């Protein structure tokens, strides 16, 4: 499908996504159970009682033909069937052909999801920020560079305090594009391109989330694909048996350094 990445690491990506989404839904179930038992104050209970929010910013067509596995929207729907909590999903996609294909693959709509065509970052931001304050998760799996300006804006919005962020990224691609644009700006005296993309570690620090988890790279992988999970819950459990580590840990920090910096930068 046009605009949809379908590479050799997609099956491994979907495995990691399945594990993390399943864990997140289980945590939402526990939060809502505790709320029903009166464990939270009235203001927080009001937020928890609303349907949890799930937004897939890059929904695609719902299927990867190269490796014959489902895409992230179908992954969500499969896991949602076992979830006890109400979750409202928004599958956002730019390409009309991908939307048409996705709609043929999704189960009949019972109010669980909306599929929305978005052609700009502004449209995506409007959808996210117009939702009621609730617990939630935003998944961003772009073909190119992540939309960090939008991610920062979302993370600072009062409605998104309890909305976690999940980003799929290639460390190698990010470093290559960052360095290429920076060098082009210097060579051609274009100041706005110099440092247009800070290193990935700086990007994460600028996002208003207190804790980040990173998934270990499944070698051999010259593209250094990983997941980055941002949350304001500092006790969010790391899941080391599935390769997820807090970046505040020695193992997680080592993975982060590998993803963020070139060998030359690490040796300075």
Q: What is the CATH architecture descriptor?
A: 3-Layer(aba) Sandwich
Please state how the strands of the largest beta sheet are arranged side by side: 5-4-1-6-7-9-8-10
How many beta-strand elements? 10
Could you state the CATH homologous superfamily?
Vaccinia Virus protein VP39
Distance between the termini: 42 Å
Work out the count of structural domains: 1
* Helix/strand order: HHEEEHEHEHEHEHHEEEHH
Describe the structure.
The chain is an alpha/beta fold and 268 residues long. The chain has one domain (10-261): Vaccinia Virus protein VP39 (Rossmann fold). Helices cover 41% and strands 18% of the residues. The protein contains 10 helices and 10 strands. The protein has helices at 10-36, 42-49, 72-80, 96-105, 121-129, 148-156, 171-187, 200-206, 250-260, 263-266; strands at 52-56, 63-64, 69-70, 87-93, 113-117, 136-140, 163-170, 211-215, 225-231, 244-246. The strands form 2 sheets. The protein has an 8-stranded mixed sheet with strand order 5-4-1-6-7-9-8-10, with helices on both faces. A two-stranded antiparallel sheet has the order 2-3. Helix 4 links the parallel strand 4 (87-93) and strand 5 (113-117). Helix 1 runs parallel beside helix 3. The longest helix is centred in the N-terminal third of the chain and has 27 residues, at 10-36. The N and C termini lie far apart (42 Å).
């Amino acid at each position: 499908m046009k605009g949809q990445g379908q590479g050799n690491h997609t099956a491994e990506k979907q495995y990691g996504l399945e594990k993390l989404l399943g864990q997140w839904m289980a945590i939402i179930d526990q939060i809502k159970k505790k709320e029903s038992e009166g464990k939270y104050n009235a203001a927080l209970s009001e937020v928890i009682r609303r349907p949890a929010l799930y937004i897939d910013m890059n929904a695609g067509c719902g299927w990867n033909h190269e490796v014959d596995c489902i895409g992230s929207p179908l992954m969500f729907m499969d896991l949602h069937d076992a979830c006890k909590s109400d979750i409202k999903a928004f599958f956002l996609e730019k390409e009309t052909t991908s939307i048409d294909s996705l709609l043929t693959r999704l189960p009949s709509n019972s109010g669980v999801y909306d599929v929305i065509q978005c052609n700009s970052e502004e449209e995506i931001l409007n959808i996210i920020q117009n939702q009621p304050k609730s617990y939630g998760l935003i998944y961003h799996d772009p073909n190119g560079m992540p939309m960090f300006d939008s991610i920062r804006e979302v993370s600072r919005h009062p409605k998104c305090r309890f909305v976690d962020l999940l980003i799929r990224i290639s460390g190698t691609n990010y470093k290559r594009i960052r360095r290429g644009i920076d060098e082009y700006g210097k060579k051609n005296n274009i100041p706005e391109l110099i440092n247009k993309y800070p290193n990935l570690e700086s990007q994460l620090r600028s996002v208003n989330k207190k804790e980040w988890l990173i998934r270990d790279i499944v070698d051999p992988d010259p593209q250094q694909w990983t997941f980055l999970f941002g949350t304001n819950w500092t006790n969010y459990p790391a899941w080391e048996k599935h390769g997820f580590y807090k970046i505040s840990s020695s193992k997680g920090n080592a993975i982060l350094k590998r993803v963020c910096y070139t060998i030359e930068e690490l040796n300075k």
